[in-house]
């Protein structure tokens, strides 16, 4: 009897393991752990996404929402990738959002002060540094103006989202820097972030891209695929 009690206690403890640094720790549709490792605080970003941020950041902590959904979808796979993605090559991707009103104080992302020096009248996004091609302060990267079809499939825990298979086309107009941001710190296009994604696209909320991609999925961090495609009317025209 004593042995049984000890095993049960151990199993219960494991179910609530602390999330690692910068990992998702809450939000609607999220089913993972809601506490963070020592030195990090589960910090509210939006209704669909909370992240483990260093406790010294002074950010506000809000109890994250969870879902009871347990449906799993097949994990997207990546094929060969050459340099900046390459037309037709499928990359495993993670999707986030930035722009006016988020808890990290991001400015309106519809601005000509992006790393590329312009924005678009349609859907646009910041690309992880390995895809963008240059780091902060280096100006426009070789991926500026390149378009990708983003397809969302699961949340960060691998649960199928309600709008799995939903796709939009975005144009790269900004950089998601690697420093201090594990989501965008992949080592080359064969490397992955903490969610197993080769690249990350930080969709611009103010362009409408975030709402169009996430839709009614109930999440603010999703996983899926990205494929380089010709730019379409969805990205609109450049504004400098």
Word description of this protein:
The chain is mainly β. 10% of the residues lie in helices and 28% in strands. A hairpin with a 2-residue loop joins strand 2 and strand 3. The radius of gyration is 18 Å and the shape is globular. The model is unreliable at 1-14 and 57-83 (pLDDT under 50). Keywords: Signal.
What is the gist of this entry?
By secondary structure, this protein is mainly beta.
User: Which sheet architecture does the biggest sheet show?
Assistant: 6 strands, mixed, barrel
Radius of gyration in whole Å, from Cα? Answer: 18 Å
Through-space gap between termini = 72 Å
Low-confidence stretches: 1-14, 57-83
Q: Helix coverage percent of residues?
A: under 10%
DSSP E strands, number:
11
Count of helical segments?
Answer: 3
What string gives the helices and strands in order? Answer: HEEEEEEHEEEHEE
- For the biggest β-sheet, the strand order reads 4-9-6-8-7-10
What share of residues are in beta strands? 25-35%
Give the arrangement of secondary structure elements.
Layout: H1 2-14, E1 24-26, E2 40-46, E3 49-54, E4 90-98, E5 119-120, E6 124-128, H2 129-132, E7 147-155, E8 167-176, E9 199-204, H3 209-214, E10 222-229, E11 238-239
Parallel strand pairs: 4-9, 6-8
Antiparallel strand pairs: 1-3, 2-3, 4-10, 5-11, 6-9, 7-8, 7-10
């Amino acid at each position: 009897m004593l042995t049984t009690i000890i095993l049960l206690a151990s199993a219960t403890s494991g179910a609530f393991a602390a999330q690692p640094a910068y990992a998702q720790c809450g939000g609607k549709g999220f089913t993972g752990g809601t506490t963070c490792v020592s030195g990090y605080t589960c910090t509210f970003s939006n209704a669909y996404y909370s992240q483990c941020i260093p406790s010294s950041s002074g950010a506000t902590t809000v109890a994250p929402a969870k879902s009871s959904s347990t449906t799993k979808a097949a994990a997207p796979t990546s094929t060969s990738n050459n340099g900046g993605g390459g037309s037709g090559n499928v990359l495993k991707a993670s999707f986030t959002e930035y722009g006016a009103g988020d808890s990290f104080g991001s400015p309106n992302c519809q601005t000509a002060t992006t790393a590329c020096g312009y924005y678009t009248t349609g859907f646009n996004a910041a690309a992880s540094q390995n895809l963008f091609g240059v780091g902060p302060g280096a100006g426009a990267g070789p991926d500026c103006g390149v378009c990708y079809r983003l397809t969302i499939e699961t949340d960060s825990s691998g649960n199928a989202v309600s709008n799995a298979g939903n796709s939009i086309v975005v144009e790269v107009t900004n950089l998601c820097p690697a420093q201090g941001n594990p989501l965008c710190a992949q080592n080359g296009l064969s490397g992955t972030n903490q969610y197993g994604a080769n690249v990350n696209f930080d969709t611009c909320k103010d362009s409408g891209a975030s709402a169009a991609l996430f839709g009614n999925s109930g999440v603010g961090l999703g996983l899926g695929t990205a494929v380089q495609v010709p730019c379409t009317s969805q990205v609109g025209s450049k504004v400098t």
